[in-house]
Amino acid sequence: MDHSHHSLAEDLERMLATQSSRRRSLRWLLASAAAVPLAGCGGGSSSAGTTASTVASTTGSTDTATTTTTTTTTGTCAVIPEETGGPYPGDGTNSNGSGVANALTLSGIVRSDIRKSVTPGSATAAGIPTTLKLQIVNVGASCASAAGTAVYLWHCDRDGNYSMYASTLTNENYLRGVQEADSTGTVTFTTIFPGCYSGRMPHIHFEVYPSLAKATSAANRIKTSQFTFPMATLNEAYATTAYSASSRNLASMSYATDNVFSDGTSLQMASVTGDPVNGYVVTLTIGVSL
Question: Which CATH number does 81-288 carry?
Fold first, then answer.
């Protein structure tokens, strides 16, 4: 594992999350004062028509663009919180030492199976087979399926390294891909279960775009966020030999101390079925405002 990479990830994500943590604290204080319960898409409950929102700006050292963050609840679904894309987005907003890192413009990046790199890469990420099923819904249209939207998704490999950025992976682009939502608003990715590196709870990054045609430039993204997994799944996956380093890293962290999930995971906790031998199926409903 590239330890210097992990240290950088921890430092940068903590800096990126400083203002994010402040605005999340403000969000929860405002929600508490208004006595408005928040409920996640596909789970829990809320009063129909209830809306609570806060807006803040965040700026990170790896992405100088200002991001406006809004969390809104309407009916029985909610807009997933805006989160940092982290130091390794690969969406053209920063560099990897060899130039601008932009997977969105790569030929073949629109694909369901993201385990193997596309040209100029050739490596394949090893790990527990995992299928991701993400349903995008439009909170502004009574949680209707957001057919035709697109999702760019990326995550680290089982050793905690990100393609395009780790010193040995700058020419690789595995575990990154774009999919267009089908008629039910669902995108499906075939991948591997991500590892856990020091400083962060295991997670997967994603960006939502209004259409596949617009998923070629980060300027068109309408939502950047992350999701995570139940602790029972993490403990089970990381008990396998190939994920032993992840098990050690996870032991020193929790959702409560994570700089992204410390304010709660109700909208960002995926459901998981399966096991390490047969693979996992991960599902999550993601609310956006179109």
Answer: 2.60.130.10
